[in-house]
Write a structure and sequence with these properties.
The complex is a heterodimer. Chain A is built from 14 helices and six strands. Chain A is mainly alpha-helical. In chain A, helix 5 packs across helix 6 and helix 12 packs antiparallel against helix 13. The longest helix of chain A has 23 residues. Chain B is an alpha/beta fold. Chain B has one domain: TIM Barrel (Alpha-Beta Barrel), CATH 3.20.20. In chain B, helix 5 packs parallel to helix 7 and helix 7 packs parallel to helix 8. The longest helix of chain B has 20 residues. The chains are: A mainly alpha, B alpha/beta. At the A-B interface, helix 1, helix 4, helix 8, helix 11 and strand 4 of A face helix 2 and helix 4 of B.
Chain lengths: 301, 319
């Protein structure tokens, strides 16, 4: 006597192979991946799927086959609206279909579906034909930005805790400043791009006319405040400093590393004032949640 | 003796919570009896969706409705998923947790579709066993919905109404009767929707779903993108009469209009209930539900492919 669950299992594996086949359900029925579970010819598929008064078995399976890709392409378009707009409907759908062949969903949530899409675009990019950033780089960076927006939007945030304010930083004793380690917000992401992709993405989200921008080194701090994703372009020096702080460097070490690695000379006569300005802006944006002092006087807001 | 709705409360007329309506609901606090959430949109959320849900749960009764349990799959149940469902249920004081009689994938994959099961004795045993496990884990009332479907299996041994009736009895779970799904499947599979509604165990029907669908001429697709059509209202009237009343919810998932339009659609149920109560001996008019779908408007304006529910993703909000 056959194992009933195995019968059900075979039927499910067959049907999944058929309706997710990229060339359609007829090709799916003929595919090895389906026939290893149920070896049935197209002409005999009624032995598995009954026909209705209006549709034959293959036409009925088409409903699921069409829906599988259409649904997931629609969801990916919702998560990557700017990438969708930049590529156009046909090319975007083609990339998503290719992506689903190598990264089919294995999660209960559609929120995970697009996680590996930027990496897929990077792995399938065409050979470079020009020196410097090209169209493919722009698309990969745009998808990276949009996936980051998703992660920051629904990931951990700081709305339920009291963030550090500028005055809290000023209350740190001067002798402790150098060794203090600022705790950065969990939502904070620091990303560099070769294109100002955030400007293009913003135009698309506002349903404005958008043109592909010229390449330009772009450094972004992306964070969440009041449950909305925010992004702030940064100049190289403050970006480097913030990155050092996010990686756990002390304030003294972070400043020293950022300044010594700067590609242009840093005007030290105005540096202290600029530091103050940056930290005022960053605390306003909620980038810091507390500070660890070397003397073990941890201050967590 | 089994009591009506398995003893669960009659929550009234509710609306499926969708992110496009967050601002309206938070600002206007509309007089909706209750909300149903898509569980998967909130169980992992640490952002705005969860924050909004917490505020709404303070004012309104909440029911959780899932699309990824995959109760019919031959893959193992995902216990991490079940525990997250349980945690969310406790957090929002969900009156019950529902999902669909379906499978969503196998071999570790999720198609994110609600795929039909073959209606066999073997499938029945498989599903009943898994419902018992789910109920043990959730420790909260569990309810399963009849799905819309577009294929039937040659190996099926019984009608769907018999399968879900025996499933509910043997697993001792509740039923979510989606009368739009009954209608859609009845057209697609050439069965009598009235017979279906009349033969399911009415005391186990805890909740009802209403929705719109798309008429493709040769078949119907459950798109949740429009108004409820008259034959579906007729099924609702009949179900209401047979159950004595059940928590009723409208789903609208594509081309979603402003909240008042969605709310007004479910409020039409009041008129249907009232008409049914006022008609002689409460006699329903089921013949309308049995009329050919060819008499209804074919949605020729819809471009293919028409995507059945579900496709619910909460997109990021960026400044």
């Amino acid at each position: 006597m056959s194992d009933p669950v195995s019968e059900l299992n075979r039927l499910q594996r067959w049907m999944q192979s058929v309706i997710t086949h990229p060339d359609g359900v007829a090709a799916g029925i003929d595919s090895d991946s389906a026939r290893q579970h149920i070896d049935v010819q197209r002409s005999a598929v009624e032995e598995v799927i009954s026909r209705s008064q209006a549709l034959d078995s293959i036409e009925r399976l088409h409903v699921y086959g069409n829906a599988y890709y259409a649904r997931l392409i629609e969801c990916m378009g919702g998560e990557f609206p700017a990438t969708h707009a930049a590529l156009g409907e046909e090319a975007f759908s083609g990339f998503v279909m290719g992506f689903l062949q190598v990264s089919p969903s294995t999660s209960y949530t559609l929120g995970e579906l697009g996680r590996a899409f930027p990496e897929y675009l990077a792995s399938s990019r065409p050979p470079r034909e020009i020196d410097g950033p090209d169209w493919a780089d722009f698309l990969i960076e745009l998808a990276t930005l949009e996936r980051t927006y998703s992660d920051v939007f629904d990931g951990p945030g700081e709305e339920r805790i009291t963030l550090m304010q500028a005055d809290d930083l000023l209350s740190i004793p001067p002798e402790s400043w150098g060794d203090a380690r600022l705790q950065t917000a969990a939502s904070l992401r620091l990303l560099t791009f070769q294109f100002p992709v955030q400007e293009y993405a913003a135009s698309i989200r506002k349903q404005e006319e958008a043109t592909i921008p010229q390449s330009a080194e772009t450094r972004l701090a992306i964070s969440r405040r009041d449950y909305i994703v925010r992004r702030r372009p940064l100049a190289p020096l403050p970006y480097a400093l913030l990155r050092q702080l996010q990686q756990g460097a002390t304030l003294g070490a972070a400043i020293e590393t950022a300044v010594s690695n700067a590609e242009t000379d840093v005007d030290m006569s105005t540096f202290a004032a600029r530091l103050q300005e940056w930290f005022r802006s960053w605390t306003g944006d909620g980038y810091f949640v507390g500070v660890d002092l070397e003397s073990d006087q941890s201050v967590t807001k | 003796m089994v009591t009506a709705r398995l003893g669960h409360p009659h929550l009234g007329l509710g609306v499926g919570l969708r992110s496009v309506h967050y601002p309206h609901i938070l600002k206007e606090h509309p007089e909706v009896d209750w909300f149903e959430i898509i569980s998967e949109n909130y169980m992992d959320s640490q952002g705005r969706p969860r924050y909004v849900l917490e505020q709404i749960a303070e004012r309104y009764p909440i029911v959780m409705h899932g699309v990824s349990l995959s109760i019919g799959s031959t893959d193992p149940l995902n216990h991490e998923y079940l525990h997250k469902l349980k945690t969310l249920g406790a957090s929002v004081h969900a009156h019950w947790i529902s999902d669909h009689l379906c499978w969503t994938g196998v071999a570790g994959r999720n198609t994110h579709d609600l795929l039909p099961v073959p209606l066999t004795e073997e499938t029945l045993r498989h599903v009943v066993d898994r419902i018992r496990v789910v109920q043990d884990v959730l420790e909260r009332p569990f309810v399963l919905e009849n799905p819309s479907s577009y294929v039937t299996f040659a190996c099926s041994e019984m009608p769907e109404w018999e399968f879900i009736s025996r499933m509910a009895e043997e697993a001792d779970c509740g039923l979510l009767l989606d009368v739009n799904n009954v209608y859609v499947s009845s057209v697609n599979h050439d069965f009598d929707p009235i017979e279906y509604v009349e033969n399911v165990p009415h005391e186990r029907i805890v909740q009802c779903h209403l929705a719109g669908h798309t008429n493709c001429g040769t078949h119907l697709i459950d798109t949740h993108d429009g108004h409820v059509i008259d034959p579906v209202w007729e099924l609702y009237r009949r179900a209401h009469q047979l159950t004595g009343g059940m928590s009723t919810l409208l789903e609208w998932d594509a081309r979603i209009p402003e909240f008042p339009v969605v709310h007004a659609e479910v409020l039409k149920a009041k008129q249907h209930i009232s008409d049914e109560l006022e008609s002689p001996q409460g006699t329903p008019r089921p013949e309308a539900a049995k009329r050919s779908h060819a008499e209804d408007d074919v949605d020729n304006h819809i471009s293919e492919p028409v995507v059945p529910h579900p496709a619910v993703l909460v997109a990021a909000e960026v400044e």
